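task queued by scheduler; priority normal; single chain, no ligands, no partner chains; default sampling; output format set to structure tokens
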Amino acid sequence: MGKQIKYGRFLHGGDYNPEQWLDNPEILKKDIEYFKKAHINTVSLGIFSWAVLEPKEGEYHFEWLEEIVQNLYKEGISTILATPSGARPKWLADKYPEVLRVNENRERNLFGGRHNHCYTSPIYREKITKLDQMLSARLGKHPGVILWHISNEFGGECHCPLCQEKFREWLEAKYETIENLNDRWCTTFWSHKYGSFSEIESPSPRGENALHALTLDWKRFVTDRTIDFIRTEEKAIREGGSDLPITANLMYDYEGLDYKKMKDVLDIVSWDNYPSWHKKEEMITAVDVGMQHDLMRSIKKEPFLLMESCPSATNWKPINKLKKPGMLLAGSLQAVAHGADSVLYFQMRQSRGASEKFHGAVIDHYGGCDTRVFREVTEVGEALEQIQETVGSVMHAQTAVLYDRENDWAIKDIQGPRNEDMHYKDCVQKQYQSLRELGMNVDVIAMEHELDDYKVLAAPMAYLMKDGYEDRLRKYVEAGGTLVMTYWSGMVDETDKCFLGGTPHDLMDVCGIRTEEIDALYDWEENFAIPDQDNHLGIRNSYKCKNLCELVRVSDAEVLMRYGEDFYQEYPVLTHHAYGKGHVYYVCADMELDFYRDFYTRITKEAGVKPILESVPEGVSVTVRENETAEYIFIQNYAREAQTIAIPNGYEVLYGSQDKIFQPLQTKVLKKIKAI
């Protein structure tokens, strides 16, 4: 762990399910020809292959898989080998029903689906351990195998008796005594005190579902159970003799698991990216996807893998729209621009039946290579080879945005002031977007991340403060950092228990304010913020605010903007406080995006953060990757019209046209040799 994984080339390919075609060797032979033609160099095998690898209990068939791995290797195509735990065979569920999940209503599922298995079940762990050991022993040292892919898109939870018992053990290890738990959970309310850990049940619509600390700890437990299961599979792989690195493919903004906790169990982070391009303006989608790329990259602060993407249209969304010409290339290079060392697809050859038979693929049911999709996949492969020298390069950021999953869980469960939507992600994304539009690399971090590298840190709606995080923010500002906090911050501890004595907890002196009330606005309501004359940032415009408006009492902070309407007219909307060597800005309301654009333009300049380019046109994305010898600027135009960007001095064009005109969806990669 801790050693950056470098492959020397961008991985290009994706999920391949050849077991569907074992009775047609001509297709398998033709696939390899097509792969080479499309510049495919890597495929993922075995992801849902348990029933083929072990059709009956104790009866193993690895020959077909070994043959395919070898045939691919002979042609220069590497294999990412998956453990098949993502979907169990029918015989396992029939003989051992304990492996099937129990839902929150305490009903055991029937066989079917994908992640429909209990991570706690000793039988399930025993059977997958044996299979993983044998798979590792058979193929784990094959020169064509480069990486282990654990299961597939972990998700879901199980409420069976086995999981209930593990949950109680987990709680006892955390709180030690039932008295401590009752105190931290505030169970005196509604007379819900527990007499022992054995009395505790997971949240259920049929039982306890309004005890926020219980819900929060259950979600933490589910993450820990998932990680424990990953460790079980990792142990089996190592026992089988393979020391290859391990990954697990994560998902877009997935609420069910706290991905940052997987930092130490995964050797490299990977994720599956399926944006809805062309639903909105492309730049809107690009910002959303960019934030997810940066979130995944920030887990380990290293390059990641784009494990899945779709070469054309998915089949599981309400509307499954085709990617327009140029979109596949732009979306693929966006991942690379944000730190990916791969572009991988689901799927290589389209399935003939079942759930994903109409999901896009490199090779469709027609079976030829003379299709638009195949040509565009080939174009991606060619582009990756042209910029191959950038593989393994890293990203450094002087700005960061806090987006913490446990905080998200707590906010979604708070019961007030807005139960329809607190707009936490929107608040985070507006700050991220404003920094990105300035042409800055941005890390998307959790409360566990170190803060020393950042000149500007946005910590919006930090409602839940994990033990000691207030002190870390204080030290960050004291040392010279610029901290941006917002309404609804520092309200509760990590068990969702409200702080007493004023908020933001233990940061009132740092911020120079104390919060008093917060007004929840109806969706049709809005207020606006008016700048104070001669405010030191020089803000001149008024801006709209909606959803949430916090009322604060100023101690010694500078007021920069005030509310324009309602009974709290003239109350502060934006304050500034110098503390130690740094600065704290407190935003009291849910401000519109244009405010943040103006605001971050000014405070990044004040903090000495220099953008990559002097000026970034609207709709253009700019990121920087670098290695020991060179710096690479990725410039992409997501606007629907051409943009003009001059090539900065000292840079040469590594990829793309030499002129300064950027057509829609066009990408250019610039290179500058570092001074020795």
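post-processing summary
- The mean pLDDT is 96.
- Residues 399-607 form a domain with the Rossmann fold fold (CATH 3.40.50.880).
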